[in-house]
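Q: Hi! First time asking for a complex rather than a single chain. Here are the components, and I think there are three in total. Is that enough to go on?
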Amino acid sequence: MSPHLLSVDDLSLDAVEHLFTIARRMEPIARRRKITRVLEGAVLGNLFFEASTRTRMSFHAAFSRLGGSVCDTTGFTFSSMAKGESLYDTSRVMAGYVDAIVLRHPDQGSVAEFSRAINVPVINGGDGPGEHPSQALLDLYTIRQEFERLGKSLAGAHLLLTGDLRYGRTVHSLMRLLSLHPPLRITLVAPPGLEMPGELVDLVASRGHRIESRESLETHFEPVDVVYTTRIQKERFTEEMQERFHNLSDEFRVNRAFLDRHCPPETIVMHPLPRDSRPGANDLDVDLNGDPRLAIFRQTDNGIPVRMAIFAWLMGVDHLIEQSMRDVGWQVPERLSPDDASFVTL
Amino acid sequence: MSPHLLSVDDLSLDAVEHLFTIARRMEPIARRRKITRVLEGAVLGNLFFEASTRTRMSFHAAFSRLGGSVCDTTGFTFSSMAKGESLYDTSRVMAGYVDAIVLRHPDQGSVAEFSRAINVPVINGGDGPGEHPSQALLDLYTIRQEFERLGKSLAGAHLLLTGDLRYGRTVHSLMRLLSLHPPLRITLVAPPGLEMPGELVDLVASRGHRIESRESLETHFEPVDVVYTTRIQKERFTEEMQERFHNLSDEFRVNRAFLDRHCPPETIVMHPLPRDSRPGANDLDVDLNGDPRLAIFRQTDNGIPVRMAIFAWLMGVDHLIEQSMRDVGWQVPERLSPDDASFVTL
Amino acid sequence: MSPHLLSVDDLSLDAVEHLFTIARRMEPIARRRKITRVLEGAVLGNLFFEASTRTRMSFHAAFSRLGGSVCDTTGFTFSSMAKGESLYDTSRVMAGYVDAIVLRHPDQGSVAEFSRAINVPVINGGDGPGEHPSQALLDLYTIRQEFERLGKSLAGAHLLLTGDLRYGRTVHSLMRLLSLHPPLRITLVAPPGLEMPGELVDLVASRGHRIESRESLETHFEPVDVVYTTRIQKERFTEEMQERFHNLSDEFRVNRAFLDRHCPPETIVMHPLPRDSRPGANDLDVDLNGDPRLAIFRQTDNGIPVRMAIFAWLMGVDHLIEQSMRDVGWQVPERLSPDDASFVTL
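A: Yes, that's all I need. Here is the structure of the assembled complex.
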């Protein structure tokens, strides 16, 4: 039992393994085959000082599925903070109302500051350019689950990370979590100016992983097990880059043609979502919709069991999950999309 | 068990009868005499891309009374959709978080598009000028319940529909549902330019109903069983109409004087609400408040059992309701308003 | 069982005693040692027509801890009220959806108007300059609980009320509640122009209490048992006052130096919160953080059992609390802050 989850750096590989063991136990509940009441009477303060409907709903649903109640707050500030209330006062007041807090805030470090004075578990739901540990955990959980489904081992696996590797905080946190594992092979593909920060590359390399960098997807790759894509925002480009990458969509676009050229059928394609589907958005292509290699929806589905595991762990009920499960009375019909294959079978 | 409720056109008379049988079973719960836990562990995504506090709260309360948890979202867009996420991606992500979705959206057809890729039940909570099927169902349910209370038969009944019959979507959906029944007599009263669309009149007439149109309420009517009113928004009037209907409030105003002149004591007066009570608003008159013929609050009350029935039906627990009911521990006191007569007696 | 809680003037001392007896029974639940399901199946409409995150969350958490479900609404108006719906219609519609209503509204008297037509319990969550009875009750409850903890009697106690005593509605309601008790000694300290209204002083004095007024905190005081502070908003000052109180922060600032000079170790310092912690804000000083005399967080914590008691009382389940309690399965760790002393021990 740990008081807070603020950063992936707080987690040892043992802690991650424990969390994933709990998450796997949560699957029957996340898949609506079982229900539990293990957090009955508990109240979550789901505090979103910055809008993020998806993340807010994922935490909300996860806490609800454990039997707890959720109190949401959205909007740029607390009304009381607009009146000059300190984060210290706000957090201490909230600690008297609720039993756990998810906090998303635009300012890096604010979640840590918020959690300092209180002992009610606080989960960092994203603090600007800082951390978003539950996203990194569900990404890693997805890789682990997909490898198990495909009968593959993570040891020595080849991961391709592409897109905006400089400003994408999810890919940084994922790198840190991956670095805890036995040696992997990681290929980084980003346009100049958007590369992975050097100190992070050095850290991961120093832990025995083999890292290679490329400037384009239009090159030869060794067979790839995981393609992790993040959107390149053109606004981030300098004029010089705009000129050099006149054909950006071809050189950095992950689509069906790319996959058919470089990736065996067991490759999985991930994305932290949302994906920009507007024409010319230069994001992960919609022509992969329906392709079983597209794991992005299985990935977002995994947010539920992983966030349930985080709550159960921080609130000290992880050991009670299995004995608390009962059959569900209602039933959501099986899914339609082909990408749901792993979701509907238990 | 049907996957979605998008339009009243999806419903046969048999389906409507089945829904109303379930709704009647829900009455003791809706009236706070019994409770159930039949949807325990289920999570509703109550997604309102357009504000409608009343409808959102009605769905929220209905799902809660079945024992489920509700996650609300309000606001013009999802934050992720502002980043270019497609409705396809948003809906597929939501399907992994929640067990049923109510969606209100300003664009006609968007709810159907949202539901296409997923198998989690989606209920259309209103898509702009399109459909709002749960409103039409609660309107019809109200007519049926009131007739039963008054010991009258719906066969051959005379309904007067008045107000803005052109742009009022609720009155269109109600017409479609009414048309499934044995022959009725329907009188339509609207100012020129705001008449019921011709093709809808033709459809209903082709199903054997007797339809008559009038240009004013200041005329002779055969005794009327139901008066269904919708507000005429003066902004919709052309200059010519403004001149012609200089005395609009007298010619189209449903008030106590109108009722006393044309309607027997068993007539019921309905309105989809909200009703504009500001002076000169030309809406259903407040001088009927307290008159037992005014059924508008019994009508809105009926939203709860009808929406409970929709959820139970779509989620396949309709057959479990009766055995799941238990006595309530707390008790809301009996109502004060005379119009609540039917509400408090079980 | 009473229909509504609109004003502290509705409460006799007997009613207050009864509420506090229930609140004390709620403590094990508020402190997360026990849970109850006594309001299972009940739905609260938590209607905030004016933003107040703290108050909304406190009511939300309190109702949730009793086993009920909560439907929140925030924003300046109901979408339906923008369309001209009367408060009468809105309240009657809500009464058909939910089992209890908390209403916060910027207009004085609006909550009473809202509650007039309905029998569903309505709690005034603050109506502009009007009333906020649950705040006054939790303030009084805090004084009573702190005196009990310190082994002191309220009879003859000395309370110092300071800050903006003219516009602070919480301090007015607290005065009214205090006036129901056996004779107290109350010292009022406010700058000219912000004094307690004369008729309220007269009312309290007429009930046998000894009231004294001062113009500055920089004077001699008899030992004080309770210091209740409210923020002075400089915007409320006339130019003349600005000149006269050039050194406002010294003359009206409650801080550690003031306490050490005038208050024995058993004094408690209260504040309705939020407290403005910005430099120069002239509010209760942060240099008291961690001082056991600072009761402001115990005070806000008390909002939970007091609001639970209000709900249980209005909904007629106050006699069922004790038999309904069960052990909690999860556990929030003990608190960190020294001010939490009374919170963590049962």
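A: The radius of gyration of chain C is 20 Å. Let me know if you'd like any chain examined more closely.
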